[in-house]
């Protein structure tokens, strides 16, 4: 089958996926559509929950393994939509629909790429294709559930919209619940330990705090106070103020190290919600990266999270579409971005495999 025909079928698959609601945890029907697509090409598929996965035909346990991964769940459409989010249609070269950009274009492009290599012999790496669910909410039945039953993964491409440039590093995330204490009292009485006033100094400390290590790819760790809550009555001084702190972690630190530092140094109680969303990266001199660079692609560090955070191997985020369109109203991807994406994926892997 020619690459042009494979590309046409991938675009038709994306239109079908858009037409099927697939909110996180509700991706069973898009999973069925992906199964049908792969089986049309004679691919032997396997399924765990709504995670659809397959191995290249000549899988050899003695070889290292490359994972191709993207997700088929979506967020819910926001209130600013003026188009039907499930009406997949093309206007002026743009394919509109919920999940078209994040990450349907990447997913169908990787599926087409996998089909292209499925029956090829004498590859340097095995290939596993995994179309997974629950990415948007980092759910229990996401790629995190699938990884333990897969063979060892040596390197991965995670399909997210990057304009087909290579995100060779991705920031991790730790969300902290912080508490600033004080003395509760009636507002009419003196109180020199007002938790709200105490919070002023804490907020200033958080605003000015910086971590020592700066990453070449990802820059500084970014700490941001995003929520504040206190009190429930006008004449009562609250006993504490609750804060939420969003910390985007570079590849110089583990999430545990960030938690240890803040719990030791912050002037308030800091409790991490989870430490599992670590930063990720790939050696800039990795052969996979070199293959992309040889095609004129650029490298950069990504501030946004993806399923890379679940992987312990080296990985690169790469895919058609533009991250700034993700979760936007009237989401779209250019048709020619998908065509280019499939072509670049295939050429990159040809140079690597």
UniProtKB/TrEMBL annotation:
Molecular-function annotations in GO: acetylornithine deacetylase activity; metal ion binding
Gene3D superfamilies: 3.30.70.360, Zn peptidases
Highest taxon listed in the record's lineage: Bacteria
A Pfam cross-reference name: M20_dimer
Parts forming coiled coils: none
GO-annotated biological processes: L-arginine biosynthetic process
Peptidase M20 dimerisation domain span: 168-264
Keyword Hydrolase: yes
Swiss-Prot/TrEMBL keywords: Cobalt, Hydrolase, Metal-binding
Family matches, as InterPro entries: Bact_exopeptidase_dim_dom, Peptidase_M20, Peptidase_M20_dimer, Peptidase_M20A
Database matches in PANTHER family: ACETYLORNITHINE DEACETYLASE, N-ACETYL-L-CITRULLINE DEACETYLASE
The protein, known as: M20/M25/M40 family metallo-hydrolase
Organism: Flagellimonas lutimaris
């Amino acid at each position: 089958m020619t690459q042009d025909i494979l590309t046409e079928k991938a675009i038709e698959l994306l239109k079908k996926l858009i037409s099927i609601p697939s909110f996180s945890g509700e991706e069973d029907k898009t999973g069925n559509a992906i199964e049908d697509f792969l089986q049309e090409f004679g691919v032997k598929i396997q399924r765990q929950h709504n995670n659809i996965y397959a191995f290249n035909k000549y899988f050899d346990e003695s070889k290292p393994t490359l994972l191709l991964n993207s997700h088929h769940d979506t967020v819910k459409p926001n209130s600013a939509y003026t188009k039907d989010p499930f009406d997949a249609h093309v206007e002026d070269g743009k394919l509109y629909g919920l999940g078209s950009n994040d990450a349907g274009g990447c997913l169908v492009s990787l599926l087409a790429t996998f089909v292209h290599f499925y029956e090829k012999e004498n590859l340097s790496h095995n290939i596993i294709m995994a179309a997974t669910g629950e990415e948007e909410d980092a759910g229990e039945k996401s790629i995190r559930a699938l990884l333990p039953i897969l063979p060892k993964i040596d390197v991965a491409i995670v399909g997210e919209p990057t304009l087909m440039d290579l995100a060779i590093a991705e920031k991790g995330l730790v969300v902290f619940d912080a508490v600033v204490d004080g003395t509760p009292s009636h507002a009419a009485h003196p109180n020199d330990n007002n938790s709200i006033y105490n919070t002023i100094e804490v907020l200033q400390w958080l605003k000015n705090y910086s971590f020592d290590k700066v990453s070449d790819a990802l820059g500084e760790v970014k700490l941001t106070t995003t929520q504040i809550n206190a009190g429930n009555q006008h004449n009562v001084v609250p006993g504490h103020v609750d804060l939420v702190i969003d910390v985007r972690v570079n590849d110089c630190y583990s999430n545990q190290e960030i938690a240890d530092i803040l719990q030791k140094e912050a002037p308030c109680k800091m409790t991490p919600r989870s430490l599992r969303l670590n930063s990720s990266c790939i050696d800039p001199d990795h052969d996979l990266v070199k293959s992309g660079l040889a095609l004129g692609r650029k490298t950069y560090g990504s501030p946004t999270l993806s399923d890379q955070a679940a992987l312990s191997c080296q990985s690169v985020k790469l895919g058609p579409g533009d991250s700034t369109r993700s979760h936007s109203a009237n989401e779209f991807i250019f048709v020619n971005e998908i065509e280019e994406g499939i072509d670049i994926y295939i050429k990159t892997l040809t140079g690597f495999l």
